Amino acid sequence: MNRIGWLAAAAMPLVLAGCNDRHAEIGQPLAKPGRSAIAVLHNATGAEIGRATASEVEGGLRVTLETHGLTPGYHGAHIHTVGRCDPPGFDSAGGHWNPLAAHHGTLNSAGPHMGDLPNLIVSTDGRATFGVNIPGATIDGLLDADGSAIVVHAGRDDMMSDPAGNSGPRIACGVFQAS
Predict the structure, then answer these.
(1) Beta strands 120-122 and 128-135: pairing type?
(2) φ/ψ bin of 36: left (φ > 0), alpha (ψ from -120 to 50), beta (otherwise)
(3) How far, in whole angstroms, is CA 83 from its chain's centroid?
(4) How far is CA 20 from CA 23, 106, 127, 152, in A?
(5) Nearest alpha-carbon partner for 77 in 178, 167, 175
(6) What is the pLDDT of residues 121-166, one digit of tens each?
(7) Residues 95 and 79 sit within 8 Å (Cβ to Cβ)
(8) Neighbouring residues of 82: CB distance < 8 A, sequence distance ≥ 6
(9) pTM value?
């Protein structure tokens, strides 16, 4: 092997290690080939206001949410245990997705529910986005016999109080469907 070929072969593991470190730096596990599900969110009048995607990643699910047309400020967002979104109150979505019987909230020492997500921070133009990893979650769990839904609430989630962090009424909902 010539000198340039040897240098290239020797450097490749370092280049690949650097790529792996980069993913770790931004907090996203390396994606494995996997399945995904999409939920189109609607408000109580039926208008489409956003989309959520859940994708299998190494060790769990990556959930992203993009919305528009919401009031500025903080809004609780959660994955709920039933794949139904009957307006206007979206009560048909059931409670939070909680297969491990935990308490609500990332600040609760006995929490969180698997369906507890960060607060959605809506800008003055009514738009918001976030992405979060849910360790241990699976597409099979998300798309079980009665499915699941993603719900946005009117107010801020305090990340501690059962059952929904005092986040107020449900104002938007979308049912996850395999994609």
Answers:
(1) unpaired
(2) beta
(3) 15
(4) 5, 27, 32, 34
(5) 167
(6) 999 999 999 999 999 999 999 999 999 999 999 999 887 777 776 7
(7) no
(8) 92, 93, 94, 146, 147, 148, 149
(9) 0.79
